[in-house]
Design a protein that fits this description.
The chain contains 24 helices and 21 strands. By secondary structure, it is α/β, with parallel strands linked by helices. It has an 8-stranded parallel β-sheet. Strands 3-7-6-4-5 form a 5-stranded mixed β-sheet. Helix 1 runs parallel beside helix 3, helix 7 packs across helix 9 and helix 16 runs parallel beside helix 17. The chain starts with a helix and ends in a 6-residue tail after the last helix.
Length: 706
């Protein structure tokens, strides 16, 4: 077979054959990896005949009837069409408002004239009708939300499951989130970023990583707090009937979340509560049933599919739907419809849970805004979903089978990473009119004033790893970046919510500039903001187009880094590199502590530089200085993780581990109502608030204090 033909096919299928790694070194996919990835993408390339056939199937559309059902356009700009039509071809555009416009295509390529109204419009031309999604040129921004040119605001970042309140049953819920939002706003916070609230597996309570959900189209039922909708008495009665009061109290007293036990306990009494609501005939129960019915009607087929999946999975006792009988693997099959009819009460229970979770998140956002936050909650959108979950079952043609999302080898992960998540199919997205992507954005924006897109690099390209292969045997697959950015901008404005893109890792040249032009804030983390000599960047050198933060859920906390807790964990679990040992890591950390202390001006620059032990300076003093440093950067928004606001040493997640480290299980040390009340925490937040005010003043004055 010809190497030229293979590369033509790879390019046509969206494989990125050549790229730069995290160190800027050129890399190239081997022919063998190209053929393997192409086969998994549905484009066989084992021979010249297969390549030719695959290329023919990938040819661009020649006729309007071959066009995808949705085209994207930028507000105020002409739009090229998927295949050329003669100049003068007439079109009709029906705007969302109902207004009708008619005209003719212009220029030699028959482009659609500019449309000035953003929205999802109906375009009719050349005997086809499709959706034209017209997007503003950029997202809704913090300046839009704050009605100011150069806002310098701050917020907190919380792991929702880690929050505490009396009666939470051992894991964080939306009532605790309400309490935290209220107190954060009182301290001056403009936003509260939370961990993903995506739907998990009710039938598999051992699976609880928030970044590996069943579906990103729905919500995490275990974060629901039905007290806010149905009253404390109804909840107490359900717990009493279930005989779980003592178990619930035990779970609340634990320092770490016992996910299987806490989930089983909560789902048991939630089921009792659901049964009671559906059976009672008093006015309160009837109102609840009516509200639930309205919610289900509004959720439509998408919600119904998730509820059927949850009930099927529970009934079959088999987690992976791909192992179910063929009649149940198709959500549109008569077998699934028959199951739903015969088990209507069971299918209704997941709908009840979704109603509770959705309403709880809506209340938390309303509380944040009423307390004075201009943004309120910032939701977190995971980069992928579990291939065995509801999203992949309900919309399989939009997902890729046999491939998982990961990351190429880099300095921190020399063998690369395989996250085990199912990716969208680039062609499936286009063929479906980006249905799941739009629905996913809407679910994320629905109860929030902002959305953090995890691994936003995936809008342009994803590192996909064939099942059974090591991560370094994967490759980058291109995604329709222009379309996805336009849809993000359109939904951002429709929900009047800001967008943050987690852009850490191997970043393609020019990608961050694209994000900035589209009004998407990147992320800058204290540990990574260094100069060419390895020193910490001065605050004034930080980006004005990114959120400033001290750390992330996958990295050490400030206090943990200062104390070397991350080194202790990695040494204990054998996670240090081949040429590393704990002693050399500790020696390097002493040098890094010295660099940070000098950058923070906590040691005298005139004293000869010497490595610092953790005991040389109190951790609280270092934390306060780091917080002030983050505050005076020109970043529009500074996000401080709760762990750093409280001075905690342990991080939420340690990459490369499953059960060896208590990932996603740590609870915060106090109830949400009292969490920010200690003198040390209040003073730290005051330091941050004052630093942000100083940064805003410096910007207005045209300078910056470095």
């Amino acid at each position: 077979m010809s190497e030229e033909g293979l590369e033509r096919l790879a390019t046509a299928a969206g494989l990125i054959v050549e790229w730069e790694d995290s160190e800027g070194r050129p890399r190239r996919l081997s022919d063998a990896v190209q053929r393997e990835l192409l086969a998994r993408l549905g484009h066989p390339a084992g021979s010249a005949t297969e390549i030719a056939a695959s290329l023919e199937r990938l040819r661009p559309p020649a006729l309007p009837r071959e066009w995808p059902p949705l085209l994207t356009a930028e507000q105020g700009a002409t739009t090229p069409l998927p295949s050329p039509l003669p100049r003068g071809t007439r079109y009709r555009l029906v705007l969302e408002s109902g207004e009708r416009r008619e005209g003719t295509l212009d220029d030699d390529h028959g482009a659609l004239p500019a449309v000035d109204a953003p929205g999802y419009h109906r375009l009719q031309l050349a005997d086809v009708e499709l959706t034209l999604a017209v997007a503003p040129p950029r997202c809704f921004t913090l300046a839009d939300a704050c009605a100011g040119e150069s806002p310098r605001r701050w917020g907190l970042a919380a792991q929702l499951y880690a929050l505490r309140r009396p009666g939470d049953g051992g894991l964080g819920d939306t009532l605790a989130l309400e309490q935290l939002a209220r107190h954060a706003a009182e301290s001056g916070a403009a936003a509260l970023a939370v961990s993903p609230t995506h739907a998990m597996f009710s039938a598999d309570v051992n699976h609880y990583s928030p970044y590996s959900p069943s579906s990103r189209l729905h919500y995490h039922a275990l974060h629901a707090a039905p007290e806010s909708l149905l009253g404390e008495a109804a909840v107490a009665a359900a717990i009493e009937r279930s005989g779980l009061a003592e178990t619930r109290a035990q779970l609340e007293a634990q320092e770490l979340i016992d996910w299987p036990r806490a989930a089983h306990t909560k789902l048991t009494w939630l089921r009792a509560l659901y049964d009671e609501v559906m059976q009672r005939e008093d006015a309160e129960a009837r109102r609840a049933r009516q509200a639930l019915a309205t919610f289900r009607e509004r959720g439509g087929a998408m919600l119904e599919a998730h509820c059927r999946f949850e009930a099927l999975q529970q009934a079959r006792g088999e987690r992976d739907w791909r192992q179910w009988p063929a009649a149940l693997r198709d959500p549109a099959s008569p077998g699934v419809a028959r199951f739903a009819e015969e088990h209507a009460h069971a299918v209704g229970f997941p709908a009840f849970l979704q109603w509770l979770a959705s309403e709880g998140l809506a209340r938390a956002q309303a509380t944040a805004r009423e307390a004075g936050m201009p943004i309120g909650l910032i939701a977190d959108l995971a980069v992928g979903a579990d291939a065995a979950g509801s999203q992949a079952w309900s919309r399989p043609t939009e997902m890729l089978e046999g491939l998982s999302i990961g990351a190429p080898p880099d300095t921190f992960n020399v063998h690369g990473q395989d996250w085990g998540l199912a990716p969208f199919s680039p062609q499936g997205l286009v063929r479906s009119g980006f249905r799941s992507f739009i629905d996913m954005l809407r679910a994320g924006f629905a109860h929030a004033g902002g959305l953090r897109i995890d691994h936003v690099l995936g809008l342009m390209r994803l590192w996909l790893v064939p099942h059974g292969a090591p991560p370094d045997a994967g490759g980058y697959v291109r995604y329709p970046l222009d379309d996805l950015l336009r849809l993000v901008a359109l939904e951002s404005w429709r929900h009047r919510a800001i967008v943050i893109g987690e852009d850490l890792g191997t970043v393609a040249p020019g990608f961050r500039e694209r994000l900035a032009r589209h009004g998407i804030l990147g992320m800058r983390v204290l540990w990574f903001e260094r100069d060419d000599d390895g020193g910490f960047l001065a605050p004034g050198q930080w980006s004005r187009h990114a959120v400033a933060t001290s750390s992330t859920h996958d990295l050490p906390t400030l206090a943990g880094w200062w104390a070397g807790r991350d080194i202790e964990w990695r040494s204990r679990l054998g996670l240090l590199g081949e040429n590393q040992d704990a002693d050399s890591e500790r020696a390097e950390r002493r040098i890094e502590r010295s660099r940070l202390a000098r950058a923070l001006r906590l040691v005298d620059d005139h004293v000869p530089q010497a490595p610092l032990d953790a005991a040389a300076l109190p951790a609280s003093q270092v934390l306060d200085a780091c917080v002030r440093r983050l505050g005076v950067t020109p970043a529009p928004l500074t996000l401080l993780p709760l762990e750093d606001a409280l001075g905690l040493e342990e991080q939420a997640n340690l990459p490369g581990t499953l059960d060896e480290h208590p990932n996603w299980r740590r609870r915060l040390p106090d109830d949400a109502d009292r969490l920010l009340a200690s003198p040390e925490t209040r003073e730290r937040l005051k330091v941050l608030d004052e630093a942000r005010r100083q940064a805003a003043h410096d910007i207005q004055e045209g300078g910056h204090d470095e």
